[in-house]
Amino acid sequence: MLGIDFSHHFIEVANAMKLKGTAEYEALLQGDIKESRVAKVAADIDRSKVTFAQGDACNLDVAELGAFDLVFASNLLCRLPEPKQFLATLPSLVRSDGVLALISPYSWLEEYTPKEHWIGGTVNPVDGTPIDSFAEIERLLAPHFTLVARTQYPFLIREHDRKFQYGVSDGTFWRRNA
């Protein structure tokens, strides 16, 4: 199993958890008040079976990485500067009959993705109809993948003890065509 993230810090923490089984962090309670906490890997998890690497999802070296039985991309797509570039690499990253799990809230923001690179979330300038992100992704993946399941995944992002962000990601699961 290989985990890739753009953030060098996230990869450092993941590798530390792989090595030690724990990671210490501070949780914001309110204002300047913080509390020390420890994240722990469950005892029944074999940490030796995972590798973590820093990488850019829009510039993956497919020849070096090879193909996988499963590619899991969660809450990633709408944070990429060029999400179509990432989608274009997926036929090479997912083996024939393999699975792509693509999970996204479609929270398109120009601070992450220039508007001209959004996949949906816009209005057709000709007729004013909405361009839906899922429909566009389905169109882009259709030559190489078949949708096998779709479900909604609620999530909660904790800011501090009394403030949370609630979201719902669209979970889509695709089988790579042979």
TrEMBL record:
Gene3D superfamilies: Vaccinia Virus protein VP39 (3.40.50.150). Residues 28-101 form the Methyltransferase type domain. It holds the Pfam family Methyltransf_11. Coiled coil: none annotated. InterPro entries: Methyltransf_11, SAM-dependent_MTases_sf. GO terms for molecular function: S-adenosylmethionine-dependent methyltransferase activity. This is Methyltransferase type 11 domain-containing protein.
